[in-house]
Amino acid sequence: MNLKRIILGILATSGMALGLVGNNQASANKQLKSAPVSIRGTWYHFYGKYYGTRAHMNKMVIGKHSLTEYSNGHTYYYKGSKFGVDQYRETIRYNGYKKHYYYFHHLVTFGDTPAYAPAHMKVAGKYRHVLLESPQQGPTPIYTRFKPSKVYQISGHYLGSYFY
């Protein structure tokens, strides 16, 4: 009887250990075949002098299967195997706004690149469709459809991740 309890205890302990170690969540990212219509188009952001470089305009052109970025006199093309769309959902609270979940999209398949999310925020006195970078360290750049003459950015923080 005592041996039976020991074997049962070992099996129960090992079963719980395997259950805790095993991955029981779905994948964090969802692969998309093309860039969503809500983030396609031409987007602008003005970087001020305090970013360590001269003040310059950053322009992104997001197509169905490509991304072209014009930044500080350089042009970067991402298409083919360098372009892929991973989507994930984050709950974020930006200063001045309530908490909200945003669908962020990684567009470049290599390196530590930011993700972008479409949003509707007040910029330059009007509510506009904007493109937000994923919050990292410091304020988040706000990309607009018009060419801004000053820096637009917002601060926020993550409240939690949601998986598919």
Number of domains: 1
- What is the helix/strand order? HEEEEEEEEEEEE
Shape: elongated
User: What is the helical fraction, as a range of percent?
Assistant: 10-25%
Q: Could you walk me through the main structural features you see in this protein, from its secondary elements to its overall organization?
A:
Helices cover 12% and strands 48% of the residues. The protein has 1 helix and 12 strands, in the order αββββββββββββ. It has one helix spanning 2-21; strands at 30-32, 41-47, 56-62, 66-71, 74-79, 83-94, 100-108, 116-123, 126-133, 140-143, 153-154, 156-162. The strands form 3 sheets. Strands 1, 6, 7 and 12 form a 4-stranded antiparallel sheet that branches. Residues 20-27 have low confidence and may be disordered. Residues 1-19 form the signal peptide. Keywords: Signal.
Short overview:
The chain has one helix and twelve strands, in the order αββββββββββββ.
What tags apply to this protein structure?
4-stranded antiparallel β-sheet, 164 residues, mainly beta
What are the SSEs and their pairings?
Layout: H1 2-21, E1 30-32, E2 41-47, E3 56-62, E4 66-71, E5 74-79, E6 83-94, E7 100-108, E8 116-123, E9 126-133, E10 140-143, E11 153-154, E12 156-162
Antiparallel strand pairs: 1-6, 2-3, 3-4, 4-5, 6-7, 6-12, 8-9, 9-10, 10-11
Signal peptide: 1-19
Keywords: Signal
